[in-house]
Inverse folding.
């Protein structure tokens, strides 16, 4: 196997994994701390992309647009928590699933009304559109490196926030036992709003980063949310560390599966059969991993210590 | 109530035509990101109705839309509703081959006329052909076959192929492989549907490493724009020239232009229609479409416009009496309407026999990115499955 190709594919997997982590970290926080199943988390990813796309055209600069769009997405998350999610905490999970599924339709239709059905392509500044050489013929698109950098930075920031700040301590405490946190006199409502807004910003950031590669389009969140759920189930619900490792694992497995499975298959079957079966299996691969983890460790790979 | 009855009585006594309006069901994608295609088709249908004044001869036409939600099961449901509840006489539309394949029985079993305005699955041109099924587009293989021919003429020796993993994707790759004489260095079929794969980083890296002289892709709708951007960002324009079918179109070009993805200018694609085709019907269609909707029509729009014009011509021929199916089929088969393709005729399997052109992406006089015809690749091309069709 070609080493250059392998390195590039690992970088591609890393990029996908980090994007997944940005979406999954918010999902796992909200699910773990608020005990709230938020199917509409993907809608925040979509709104982040759309808001950033519009701002890119309005401000003429992608990076500036990201900086402005981040707090806006956080605000939408905060409002969603105050107005909709809060009334659903006392309900059971099925009600939450139904309500947030409805919320997806509302957000999708809203995006359709505001931005139209066609989706928006996001232009990048010139210095981001080229490629960077990592030695030899190892050429990587600059923007994909930026995604990896931004993803790692966000992950690092989150790690610091959760492990070394008072807010993080409360978040961890909330994930372990929220009744106790409330009993200790912490304003649990405020904590919930903050966590929700934080999750929205992280998902929005992922949407903003993917938009220049694909585009901002209606329903874009619905495909990633399924994978994000796979990530948090594999990682252990409520665990940031679990979400990080599982996201990278899923990202790498998915990318490497797409990249090398057909070559692998053609070693022991006809190339026509390999061509047909490899895409089918690589589409299933992450779900197979999830099934395997659920069978061996039903709590996920890194469940939070006290549940 | 009394008034209506007396009105009906008066109409009956005056001997007004007894035929009810002719209803056309039109199934396309009106939700999901692929709605951008459905919207364009709907615009074209509305324009066709406007040009017709809503009438086929002295018969009033009515169009009822159905949304397939980019999924076979939803498309079948929408079709069932049109056939059973709305009792339409014609069902037209269909972007996606897998949706059309899932929906065909609902229409054909009810002895209604089915007209594809885009999807052209090989099965329905061959073994599953039907006297009630007509197409105003093409059979899937034809456009990529024309592209394979172009590649041979340009001396391209090796090719990497990428397409989505569904019925049409497989037809497209089969088409280019049928005519392309060089070596296929690699092939990727990627996940498709409402949660389609849109990040092609892994596949593009493989394509680059394969050392192929060109890359052939088929990515309709939003995926096309996404592919072009990543192809641009990966800097493959010089090393791995792009040859595409149904990927660069009037829907993706405005977005690519707005975002400044210049790599697409000059890229080549094959098609049976182009906005620059020189005939009266096409000029009227393109001019009015641009005036009304502000963009160039896509080939989806052109084919949809033709579908409505075809239906209208047949309804007019039979004097609005669509109950006589043999007469309706005969009238359809004559294809006596002014197609935006200039000429239009059906083959033995009710698929069009038509020309295919090589098109290039250019900037028009107003600075808008569009396509123009470079050369004619095939004249009166018959699809490869016509021989398998035993019309019942």
């Amino acid at each position: 196997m070609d080493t250059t190709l392998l390195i590039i594919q690992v970088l591609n997997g890393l990029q996908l994994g980090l994007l997944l982590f940005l979406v999954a970290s918010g999902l796992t926080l909200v699910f773990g701390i608020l005990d709230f199943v938020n199917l509409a988390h993907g809608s925040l990813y979509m709104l982040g992309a759309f808001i950033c796309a519009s701002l890119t055209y309005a401000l003429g600069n992608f990076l500036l647009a990201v900086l402005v769009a981040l707090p806006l997405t956080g605000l939408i998350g905060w409002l969603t928590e105050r107005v909709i999610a809060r009334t659903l905490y006392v309900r059971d999970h099925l009600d939450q699933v139904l309500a947030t599924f409805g919320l997806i339709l509302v957000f999708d239709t809203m995006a359709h009304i505001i931005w139209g059905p066609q989706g928006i392509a996001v232009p990048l500044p010139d210095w981001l559109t080229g490629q960077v050489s990592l030695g030899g013929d190892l050429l990587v698109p600059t923007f994909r490196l930026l995604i990896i950098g931004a993803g790692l930075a966000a992950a690092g920031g989150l790690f610091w926030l959760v492990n070394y700040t008072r807010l993080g301590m409360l978040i961890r405490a909330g994930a372990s036992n929220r009744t106790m946190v409330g009993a200790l006199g912490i304003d649990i409502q405020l904590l919930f709003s903050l966590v929700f807004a934080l999750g929205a910003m992280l998902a929005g950031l992922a949407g903003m980063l993917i938009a220049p590669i694909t585009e901002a389009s209606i329903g874009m969140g619905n495909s990633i949310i399924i994978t994000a759920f796979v990530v948090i189930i594999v990682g252990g619900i409520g665990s940031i560390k679990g979400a990080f490792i599982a996201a990278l694992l899923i990202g790498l497995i998915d990318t490497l599966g797409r990249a090398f499975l057909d070559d692998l298959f053609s070693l022991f079957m006809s190339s026509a059969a390999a061509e047909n079966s490899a895409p089918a299996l690589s589409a299933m691969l992450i779900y197979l991993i999830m099934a395997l983890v659920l069978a061996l460790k039903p709590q996920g790979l890194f469940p939070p210590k006290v549940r | 109530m009394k008034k209506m009855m007396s009105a009906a009585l008066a109409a009956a006594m005056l001997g007004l035509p007894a035929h009810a309006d002719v209803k056309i069901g039109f199934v396309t994608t009106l939700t999901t990101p692929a709605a951008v295609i459905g919207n364009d088709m709907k615009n074209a249908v509305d324009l066709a109705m406007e040009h017709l004044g809503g009438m086929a001869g002295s018969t009033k036409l009515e169009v009822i839309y159905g949304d397939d939600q980019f999924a076979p099961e939803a498309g079948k449901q929408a079709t069932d509703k049109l056939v059973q509840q709305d009792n339409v006489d014609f069902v037209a539309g269909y972007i996606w081959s897998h949706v059309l394949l899932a929906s065909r029985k609902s229409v054909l079993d009810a002895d209604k006329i089915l007209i594809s305005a885009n999807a052209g699955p090989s099965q329905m041109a061959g073994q599953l052909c039907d006297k009630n099924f007509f197409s105003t587009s093409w059979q899937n293989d034809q456009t990529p076959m024309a592209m394979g021919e172009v590649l041979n003429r340009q001396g391209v020796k090796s090719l990497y192929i990428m397409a989505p993993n569904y019925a049409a994707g497989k037809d497209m790759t089969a088409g280019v492989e049928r005519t392309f004489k060089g070596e296929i260095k690699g092939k990727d079929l990627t996940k498709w549907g409402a949660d389609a794969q849109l990040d092609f980083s892994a596949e593009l890296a493989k394509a680059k490493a394969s050392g192929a002289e060109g890359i052939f892709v088929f990515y309709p709708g939003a995926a096309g724009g996404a592919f072009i951007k990543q192809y641009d960002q990966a800097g493959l324009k010089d090393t791995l020239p792009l040859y595409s079918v149904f990927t660069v179109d009037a829907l993706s070009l405005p977005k690519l232009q707005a975002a400044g993805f210049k790599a697409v200018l000059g890229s080549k694609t094959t098609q049976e229609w182009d906005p620059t085709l020189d005939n009266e019907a096409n000029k009227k269609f393109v001019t009015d479409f641009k005036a009304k909707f502000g963009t160039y029509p896509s080939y989806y729009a052109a084919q949809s416009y033709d579908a409505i014009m075809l239906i209208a011509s047949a309804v007019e021929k039979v004097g609005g009496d669509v109950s006589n199916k043999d007469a309706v089929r005969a009238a359809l088969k004559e294809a006596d309407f002014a197609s935006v393709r200039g000429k239009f005729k059906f083959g033995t399997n009710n698929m069009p026999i038509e020309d295919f052109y090589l098109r290039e992406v250019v900037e028009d006089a107003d600075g808008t990115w569009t396509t123009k015809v470079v050369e004619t690749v095939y004249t009166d091309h018959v699809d490869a499955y016509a021989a398998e069709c035993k019309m019942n």
